[in-house]
Amino acid sequence: MVKEITRDIKQLDHAKRHLTTSITTLNHLHMLAGGVDSLEAMTRRRQYGEVANLLQGVVNVLEHFNKYMGIPQIRQLSERVKAAQNELGQQILADFEEAFPSQGTKRPGGPSNVLRDACLVANVLDPRIKQEIIKKFIKQHLSEYLVLFQENQDVAWLDKIDRRYAWIKRQLVDYEEKYGRMFPQEWCMTERIAVEFCHVTRTELAKIMRTRAKEIEVKLLLFAIQRTTNFEGLLAKRFSGCTLADGTVKKPEVALPSTNPFLEDEAGTETDEIVIEKSDTDKPKKPKVPDNPFHGIVSKCFEPHLYVYIESQDKNLGELIDRFVADFKAQGPPKPNVDEGGAVLPSCADLFVYYKKCMVQCSQLSTGEPMIALTTIFQKYLREYAWKILSGNLPKTTSSSGGLTITSLLKEKEGSEVAKFTLEELCLICSILSTAEYCLATTQQLEEKLKEKVDASLVERINLTGEMDTFSIVISNSIQLLVQDLDAACDPALTAMSKMQWQNVEHVGDQSPYVTSVILHIKQNVPIIRDNLASTRKYFTQFCIKFANSFIPKFINHLFKCKPISMVGAEQLLLDTHSLKMVLLDLPSIGSQVVRKAPASYTKIVVKGMTRAEMILKVVMAPHEPPVVFVDNYIKLLADCSTDTFQKILDMKGLKRSEQSSMLDLFRQRLPAPPSGAENAGSLSLSAPTPEQESSRIRKLEKLIKKRL
Fold first, then answer.
1. What does the entry list under GO cellular component (predicted)?
2. What span, in angstroms and rounded, lies between the C-alpha atoms of 251 and 255?
3. Cα–Cα distance measured from residue 227 to residue 205, given in angstroms and rounded to the nearest whole number
4. What is the mean pLDDT of residues 497-508?
5. Which residue has the higher pLDDT, 315 or 111?
6. Closest C-alpha among 669, 651, 670 to residue 660
7. pLDDT of 265 over the 60 cut
8. Quick one: which of 236, 436, 462, 606 could link to 474 by a disulfide (CB 3.0–4.6 Å)?
9. What is the rounded distance in angstroms from the CA atom of residue 649 to the CA atom of residue 629?
10. In angstroms, rounded to a whole number, what is the distance separating the alpha carbons of residues 586 and 581?
11. Minimal CA–CA distance to 528: which of 338, 673, 272?
C-alpha cells in the first residue's frame, strides 16, 4: 500500500533529477560551443589576455563531457579544443621567435603586453610549450656571452674569471629592468638564466682548462675557485634554488662550506687548534644538509685539476717539516720549565694549524677524491713528523761502565761514573712524550673531521690508525728511555750489593750505602719527570709501573747473587729491602709538596714484587734443620715450584752440595702433595718449634723495622 501511495512521488523525483542533469549538461554544451567559437576567434586576433582565462574554462567544461565522447558532435568540439591549443602553442612560439630571434638580427628594445599575456596562456597549455619558451629565451639571452668568452679570447682564461661573473650580474639587472614583468613570477626566469649561465660556464671552463692544463698554477687555481665559490654564495643569497629540482638542473650532491665544523671558529686566529668536545663525538652524526644549493654548480669543473693544489700542499708540508728540523737544530731542545709541566713542541701546533687550514680549503673545493688525496698527504707528513722531529731528537742511550765498589757508590754525588741523561735531556724526552700524546689525540680528531668532510661513499677510505700507532710507539719509546736511564743509574748500586761479603756482616745497622745510592737516583730523576709530565699523568703512572716492573725483578736477581749470607747479613738485607719497598711505594709523589696516593695498579705491583724479595730473605733466615720444616716453609712463603729458585735459596744459605742434593730430593717429594696435604704441611711448619736464637733474632729485626718506620 505504501509503494502504491509513493509510486507517483518516486517517479516525480526521478524526473526532476533527470531534468536537472539535462539542463546542466545543455548549459555546459552551450558554454562549450560558445567558448570554442570564441577561443578560435581570439586566437586569430592574438587576444592572449582573454584567451588565458577562456581556455582554462573551456578545458574545465570539457571534462564534464568525457562520458559523452561517443556522441559525434561532442567529439568534434573536443577535437576543435585540441586543435586550438596546438595552434595557440605554435603561434605563441612563433611570436617569441619573432620578438627574440635566435640568429642574426638585433633583439627588440623591450617586451610587449602581447607576449606577457602569451606567457599566461602557456601556463595552461602543454608544459612543453612553456619549457620551449624558457629554453629559447635563455639561449638567446646568453648568446652574447658565448661570443665574448670564446675559448680563444683573452678574457676566457682563469685570471680574468671575474669578468664572467661581472657580465652575468649586469645581464640579470638588465633582464629585471626590461623583462621582469613579462614572464610570470612563478617561472623564476632570473634564477633560470643564472643557473643556465653556471652550466655553460662550467662546461666552457672545463674545456679551456683541459686545453691549457700545463698553464694552471696553484695560485691561479685557488684564485679562480675563490671567485667562483663567492659567486655561488651570492647566488644562494639571491635565489632559493627552486629551479634546481624541476629536472632542468640536477642538484649537486656535495658538502657545503657552512656544514664544515672547522668553520665554527673561522673568526678566530689562525693559531687556533683542533678541539672536539667529547659530547659532540658521542652524539650520532646527522646527515649533512646543504644550505647552499648552488655550491659546486660551477666550481665542480675545478675538481679534476685539484691535483695541482694537492701537489702544492705536498711540497709546502715537506718544506715545513724541513724547517721544523732546521729550527730544532738551531734553537736546540726546549729549556727546562718545571713550573708549567712538559712543554709541547710548538712545531706540532703549527703543523696541525696548517692541516686545519688545508682541510677547510679543500673541503670548500671538493668533498670527493681530492679529500682522499689530501688525507694521504696528511698521513705521509704525520709519519715524517713522528720520526724526524720526535723520534729523531730523542737522546741516545750510552752503555754504562762496569760494576762499582761500595766506596765508589759514595762518590756518585760528586762525579757520577754512570752515564746518565742530563736535566735538559730528561726535559727533552718528557717534552717529546707530551708532544706525541698531543699529536695522538689531535690525529684522532683529525680523522673524525676528515670523515665528516668527505662524501659518505668515501668515509671508509679514511683511516689514520697507522699514524696514531706511530705516535704511540714514540710515547712508548720515550717512557722506555726514562725507565732505562733510571734503571741504569741504579745498576752499579745493585752490582755493589751483590759483591758485598754478606757472610761477614757482624751487626744490623742503618740502611746500606747501595740503598742510599738507589734512593738518591730516584730522588734526582723522578721529581723532574713527574713535573715535566704534569699534563699527562697517565704516562707518568706508566713510567712508574714500567720502572717497578724492571727494577724489582733485577733487584731480586741481584739478591740471589748475594751468597753466602749469614743470619745477620740476611737481617740487614731484609732491612734494606723494606727501605726500598717504602721508597718505591712513595715513588709517584717522592720529593713533591703535594702528597698524592699512589695509583692502586702501581702499588699492587710494588707490594707483590718486594714482598717476594722479603719472603726470599725470610726463607734464607729460617734454619734448614729439620729439612722437612724448611722445605714446607719455603713452599708456604714463596709458593714457587721451580727447583732453580730453590737451588738459589740453598746457595744463598751456603749449604754444601751434598746437603743441597738431599734438600732438592725432599723438595721434589713434597711438591706433588695434594692441597690438603700442603695445608697440613703448612700447619706443621707453623706449629713446629724454632730455636730460641732464631726467635730472638726475628723479634729484634721486627723492632728495628718498627723503630725506623
1. cytosol; endosome membrane; GARP complex; recycling endosome
2. 12
3. 13
4. 86
5. 315
6. 651
7. no
8. 436
9. 15
10. 9
11. 338
Q: Which residue from 182, 51, 175, 52 is spatially nearest to 115, judged by alpha carbons? A: 182
Pair 599, 539: CB distance under 8 Å: no
**Please, which residues have CB within 8 angstroms of residue 688's CB and are 6 or more apart in sequence?**
626, 629
Total residue count of the chain as it appears in this document: 709
Residue appearing with cell numbers 754478606: 502
Classify 469-671 by CATH class: mainly alpha
How distant, in Å, are the alpha carbons of 244, 285, 363, 553 from that of 366?
A: 20, 20, 5, 57
Cell of 695: 726467635
The closest alpha carbon to 333, from 343, 318, 323, belongs to 343
Cα distance between residue 449 and residue 352, in whole Å: 12
Joined grid coordinates for residue 647: 737451588
Alpha-carbon distance values, 189 to 134, 135, 141, 199, 243 (Å): 8, 10, 11, 15, 9
Q: Which of 544, 614, 558 is nearest to 581 (CA)?
A: 614
Radius of gyration of the chain measured on its C-alpha atoms? 47
Taking residue 428's Cβ as centre, other Cβ atoms within 10 Å add up to: 25
Q: What is the 3-state secondary structure (H, E, C) of 462-510?
A: CCCHHHHHHHHHHHHHHHHHHHHHHHHHHHHHHHHHHHCCHHHCCCCCC
Contact by Cβ (8 Å): 259, 289:
yes
**For residues 58-70, b (16+ Cβ closer than 10 Å) or e, as one string?**
beebbeebeeeee
**In the chain, count of helices (H) and strands (E)?**
24, 0
Distance from C-alpha of 542 to C-alpha of 549, rounded to nearest angstrom: 10
Helix (H) / strand (E) containing 15: helix 2-44
The span from the CA of 352 to the CA of 396, in Å, is 28
Residue with cell 644562494: 236
CA–CA separation, 665 and 634 (whole Å): 14
pLDDT of residue 251: 39
pLDDT at 519 over 60: yes
User: Are the beta carbons of 121 and 48 closer than 8 angstroms?
Assistant: yes
Per the listing, cell 749449604 goes with: 655
Reply yes or no on whether the pLDDT at 476 is more than 70.
yes
In sequence order, what DSSP letters do the residues of 499-568 get, joined into one string? HS-GGG--S--S--HHHHHHHHHHHHHHHHHHHHTTT-HHHHHHHHHHHHHHHHHHHHHHHHHS-S--HH
Mean of the pLDDT values across residues 332-361?
A: 76
- Residues 653, 94: Cα–Cα separation, whole Å: 120
**Each residue's pLDDT tens digit, 211-243:** 888 888 888 988 998 889 889 888 888 888 777
Q: What angle do CA 331, 335, 336 make, to 5 degrees?
A: 160
DSSP state at residue 388: I
- For residues 471 and 391, what is the distance between their CA atoms, to the nearest angstrom? 9
User: Cα separation of 572 and 510, whole Å?
Assistant: 8
Give domain 299-468's CATH number out of 1.10.1740, 3.90.320, 1.20.120, 1.10.357: 1.10.357
Contact 521, 489 (CB under 8 A): yes
Phi, then psi, of 291 in degrees rounded to 5? -90, -25
The C-alpha angle 507, 508, 512, rounded to 5 degrees, equals: 120
pLDDT over 70 for what percent of the chain?
77
What letter does residue 184 receive in the DSSP assignment? -
